Amino acid sequence: MLLERRSKNNVKTVQHNFQNQPPLIELKNFSFGYEKSEWTLNNLSFSINDDETILLMGSSGSGKSSLALCLNGLYPEAVEGYSKGSVLFMGHDISEMKKGVLNQKIGIVFQDPESQFCMITVEDELAFTLENLSVPREEIDCKIGNILQTIGMEKYRHEKIHELSGGQKQKIALAAVLLMEPELLILDEPTANLDPVSSLEFIQLIERIQQEQNISLLVIEHQAEDWQEAASRLIVIDSKGEILLDDKPEYIFTNHQELLNEEGIFLPKEFQDTPALAFTQPKPRVSSEKILSLENVSFSRKSKQILNDISMDIHRREIIAIAGENGAGKSTLLQIISALLPINEGKINFLGQPISEWGENDLRKRMGFVFQNPEHQFITDTVYDELAFGLRLNHADDKKINSTVSELMHFFHLEKEKWKNPFSLSGGQKRRLSVATMLDETPDLLLFDEPTFGQDAKTSSELMKKMIELTEMGVAIVMVTHDMELVDRYCDRVMVLNEGSIAFQGKPKSLWRNNELLNRSRLRKPHRVRFRNDMDEEAVYDLLY
């Protein structure tokens, strides 16, 4: 049977030996689990049709990413898991398809794009994909140029992938998948590492590619705000791994808000009953005590200047956001503050002494760092041991270890994962574990790179509540984030990086007034500000602040 072929003008022609064309993907009573005694996905039955755009939502750990990997045949075999029921691709059971064929027809851009790279440079990565597809050598150069132009990354062709920002890596991962010309494109939280404007541009890019290539699209997202108009269907998976809802997005968001709230799923702002103005959390009074300062700090990598003349102070009890477009140097600055990267020029003082004079163990007791990729922090084989590691290093007794670990697992909803390998957790669970490992003792300064990445509404709210509690205990928190709603709601100050320099330091309310800087830094005002234009601006700020 000929399942699919492409004409020269890239329009797909589908041929079947039967009169009625089956769905592109069909699940029939499908279940999947990492252990026979516990199913992650339960009895799923639904279809994906040609040229359809489906939004897949669910609480953190509900099995969304696992489902994506089951659809293209990687699971259960790759993890030695278990499944029952069937997954059909164009009427054929995927378990009977030749290995490698399905992976080309169903392409996935993973939640962590780094996990799918094989080569060092952008060009080599894309060439590697084309060579595996047996594309003639004389066509490879042109195809690489075309796909980089499509995603707006032409100037990064010869860059090393590990030196790209998180958002830039996401685009390269997308390019590699698009080169395979898949029938179904699965995107797992594709905009989580993109600045606000790049996020909108990415969605517009995907919509254009879908129309040009006639592909079906499955988008896994916690935030539906910018995807809902493009999606024809919304499928919601509950915490038991079962399908809770399957209908048009607007219908679900309008008629099933209570169910969605119970599952901890973000509602788009326009469907929220809570007035936009009634959101402020009581913030602690910022202390005058300065705990860390940067003076005229610069950093370059080889001959490339990344940060230039950075000066800032951090005080106890405050939450500071570092914002800016992809590649502005936000994550680099966070690593410099934490002494994970050496500076070329300038001074850094922490708790009254140069940071270079701190011993490594003493420094890590007083300062915690949560990486953008949580897997970079994991060093043990179980969740329990990961949480106990720092306590054991500091010679805590067994009673202290057990009580602290139990408290952290309860707060971060990791009790059921106690003896699982950290690398086997969902993206959201990995993020919560990485944060929890920093809280076995109360530090003076906590640094977060995208703290709410992969989190549902409930766990995001709980995490931010925990941050507020920590600041009330005297902890200072600095976080890199693209989430302007988070900045607006929780942060005392925001610092905007633009082209390696500080373009703004001040209160969020002042930033929202600076339209020129917001445009230049590819940031968007929060929903509250964008959609309250009918009120007097000063009156709004008076109410909020």
From TrEMBL:
The keyword Chaperone does not apply. CDD domains: ABC_cobalt_CbiO_domain1. It is a peripheral membrane protein. GO terms for cellular component: ATP-binding cassette (ABC) transporter complex. Keywords: ATP-binding, Cell membrane, Membrane, Nucleotide-binding, Translocase, Transport. GO terms for molecular function: ATP binding; ATP hydrolysis activity; ATPase-coupled transmembrane transporter activity; cobalt ion transmembrane transporter activity. The keyword Cell membrane applies. It is found in: Cell membrane. Belongs to the ABC transporter superfamily. PANTHER family: HEAVY METAL TRANSPORTER, HMP_THIAMINE IMPORT ATP-BINDING PROTEIN YKOD-RELATED. This is ABC transporter ATP-binding protein. It comes from Halalkalibacillus sediminis.
